[in-house]
User: What shape does this take?
Amino acid sequence: MKELGETMELAKFGPAGNPDAFYEAGFKASVDIPGWLSRLRLAAYEYQCGRGVNVGEKTAGAIGKAAAEQNIALSIHAPYYINLATEDESLAANTENHILKSLQAARWMGADRVIFHMGSPGKSSRQAAMDRAKHRLSGVLDKIERLGLSDIILAPETMGKVNQLGSLEEVVQLCKLAPNLLPAVDFGHLHAVTRGKYTDRQEFEAVFDYVQAELGEAAACSLHIHFSRIEYTKAGEKRHWTFADEYGPPHEPFIAVIADRKLQPRIICESAGTQARDALIMQELYLRLLNKDSVAG
Assistant: This one.
C-alpha cells in the first residue's frame, strides 16, 4: 500500500443522509448539508434515495454545486426496491429503471458512486439467484454504456439479513462483471449476518485481503464502506444504533487497519441520527493514528 506522505490521499468520512444535528441547527434542505459538513471538516456525504429517486435536476444540481465548492465527495444510495435476482419480469424492469434513474440523479448531482442492494433469492437457490443477478446486471451495464453513464461507479452492498443476496463473496462475484463496479462493504451488516463477527483486527484485515486477491489492490484501497453499530437476531440485522450504544462492530480495530495500511476508502457512517458525530469519531481516531505513525517513522 502507499506510504504516508504529503501527497497521500486520505480516507474520506461522512454521513448517510442528514443527521439530527443538521435539523437541530435550523437547516431544512439538503443543499445546505455540504457547507454544514465542511464546517465539521467531514469530506463525504451519501444522498439517500432508498424510498425512490425523487430529486429533480435543479435540486440535484444545487446540491452538487455546493458539494463541489466544499470538496465533499458525493454518493447516492439507490432505492431499496432493487432486486436483480427476481424471477418476476415486471419487477426486473422496475429494477433496471431504479438503477438508471439513480445514475441520472448522480450525473445531475456530480456524485461518482451509486450504492445498491442486490435483492433476494426468493424461493430459488442462491446460485440460481446469483446467475439471474449477473445476467440482469450485464444487460443494465450495456444500457449504461450506451447512455454515457459508465463513468459512475456502481457499488453492490454487503447485506445484513440471511435471506438476502449480498455476502462479501457474492458482492465480489458481481463486481467482476465490469471495471465500473466496486464493492460497498457494510461492516455493520457483516457483523449482523455472521451474528457477531468483525470485532477484531484480523477479521477486518481479511476483508481487504480478500478484495485485493479477487479484484486487485486499487479496489481494496478505495472501497466504499458503510459503518454503524447494529443489533441483530438469528435472521441478521434488526436495528441501527449509535456509537454510544453497546452494540458492535467496534470501530477502533477497523480504523487501525485503515490507518496502518494507508488505505483510502470512503467511509459512510449509518448511525441512527448521530451519523455525522460518529463519522467524526472515526475520522479523529484515523488522523491521530496517521500522525502517530508519521512521527514514529
